[in-house]
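Subject: design request, 497 residues
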């Protein structure tokens, strides 16, 4: 039998025992209330009969009409109480009927007494009526005394029935409680044998299993949840034994893979170091002749005897050389950031002042493109950053917003100071936006976005450098973009204090 079935049986026993006790209490309360009401009615009737007896004697002695009136009123009360008592309870119907019949007889005698007490003119009739009144009064007194005694006996009977009901109910409830306690003890022993004992054995065996003794088995054949759990533990031990067989082989393979990964890591670090060194040397070797080319080109450009066509060619050569030099510097920056060789001077900076300087630097570019730059800045907001590197990031974001904007477009710069730990600078443009399938490539090196099927001028590594520099300063850079509507790039930096 399953544990839930055992517990259900115990719950049902407790439930039905409680219901039985509740029904007994309700029945006792009901019976007691009936007897109490009947007793109250009969006692009230007996008291009223006593008052009738007093009023009868008063009327017999004095013949007072007031006493007769009060007697009739009290008689109506007694009659009503006896009638209510007969309706309330089915017991003692005969006694109540006898009391009602005797009450009718008393009323009849009272009417005869009242008739015999009326005054007459003849003396002999007066003597006869006096004797008749005394006889009726004597008979009425006897009948009312019997009526009073019967009412008291009936009241005592109902009082006794109330006591018997209480005693009977107490006895039954006591027996039910004893049976309930016996049932609880029996069920507890049953649960101890069927649940607690198997659980203790299961706990003991699982302790061995937790210590690695997987050859242990739990000997439990019971067809309940504990038996199912025991068999599940046995199957688990068998599976663990099978697993442990290949444990050593797995450790050996893990060791080999670890050594291979360590070798691969060392090779990658060496390759990264070689790459950095190569890029550094190449950048140095390239910048030297480029600076010479740019210098000689500018000297030649200063010759007033040159024709306009030659001067144009020299200008294009200078522009191409400057672009190549910028590309070399950016590649060198990437190499320095990757190798950790870049040095940062983290200080407290007023970002509104720095943004204003950057806006001034890109304003000629914006005017040439017909783009309006709006800066909504809160003054006195400080961040912790390297001034030159932060300026490099902001100029990159602004130049991209201008280059990838529409004709007569707009660039909005704003500061978000809602977070007390960081400050967010946003650069939003009304340009072409970025396709959703291309957004994951934005921060990849040498990635460039085509505008009207033509590539915009640039090296494609500005955002890559900006992201690495932001991360190096404890910040973060990201963006949201809707193709055809524009983009919003944001830069988070730690705030000062």
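Subject: RE: design request

Done. Sequence follows.
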């Amino acid at each position: 039998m399953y544990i839930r079935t055992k517990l259900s049986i115990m719950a049902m026993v407790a439930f039905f025992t409680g219901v039985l006790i509740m029904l007994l209490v309700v029945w006792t309360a009901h019976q007691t209330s009936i007897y109490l009401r009947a007793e109250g009615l009969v006692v009230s009737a007996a008291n009223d009969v006593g008052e009738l007896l007093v009023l009868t004697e008063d009327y017999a002695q004095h013949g007072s009409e007031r006493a007769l009136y009060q007697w009739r009123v009290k008689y109506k009360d007694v009659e009503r109480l006896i009638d209510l008592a007969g309706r309330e309870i089915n017991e003692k119907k005969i006694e109540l009927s006898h009391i009602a019949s005797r009450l009718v007889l008393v009323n009849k005698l009272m009417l005869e007494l009242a008739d015999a007490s009326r005054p007459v003119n003849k003396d002999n009739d007066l003597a006869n009526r006096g004797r008749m009144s005394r006889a009726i009064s004597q008979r009425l007194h006897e009948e009312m005394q019997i009526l009073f005694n019967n009412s008291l006996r009936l009241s005592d009977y109902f009082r006794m029935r109330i006591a018997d009901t209480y005693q009977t109910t107490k006895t039954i409830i006591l027996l039910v409680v004893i049976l309930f306690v016996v049932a609880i003890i029996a069920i507890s022993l049953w649960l101890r044998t069927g649940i607690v004992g198997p659980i203790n054995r299961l706990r003991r065996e699982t302790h061995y299993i937790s210590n690695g003794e997987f050859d242990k088995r739990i000997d439990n054949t019971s067809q309940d949840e504990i038996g199912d759990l025991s068999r599940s533990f046995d199957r688990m031990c068998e599976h663990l034994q099978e697993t442990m067989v290949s444990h050593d082989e797995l450790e050996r393979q893990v060791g080999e893979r670890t050594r291979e990964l360590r070798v691969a890591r060392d090779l990658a670090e060496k390759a990264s170091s070689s790459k950095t060194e190569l890029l550094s040397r190449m950048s140095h070797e390239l910048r030297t002749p480029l600076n010479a080319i740019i210098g000689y080109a500018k000297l030649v450009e200063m010759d007033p005897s040159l024709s306009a066509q030659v001067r144009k060619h020299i200008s294009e050569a200078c522009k191409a050389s400057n672009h190549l030099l910028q590309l070399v510097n950016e590649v060198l920056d990437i190499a320095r950031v990757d190798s950790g060789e870049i040095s940062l001077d983290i200080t407290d900076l007023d970002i509104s002042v720095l943004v204003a300087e950057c806006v001034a630097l890109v304003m000629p570019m914006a005017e040439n493109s017909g783009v309006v730059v709006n800066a909504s800045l809160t003054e006195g907001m400080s961040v912790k950053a390297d001034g030159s590197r932060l300026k490099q990031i902001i100029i990159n974001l602004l130049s991209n917003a201008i280059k990838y904007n529409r004709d007569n477009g707009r660039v909005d710069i704003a500061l978000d100071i809602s977070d007390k730990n960081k400050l967010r600078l946003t650069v939003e443009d009304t340009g072409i936006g970025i396709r959703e399938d291309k957004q994951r490539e934005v921060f990849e090196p040498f990635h460039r976005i085509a505008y009207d099927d033509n590539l915009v001028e640039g090296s494609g590594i500005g955002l890559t450098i900006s992201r690495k520099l932001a991360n190096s300063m404890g910040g973060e850079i990201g963006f949201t973009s809707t193709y055809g509507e524009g983009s919003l790039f944001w830069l988070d930096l730690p705030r000062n204090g």
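The chain has three domains: 3-188, 249-336, 343-494.
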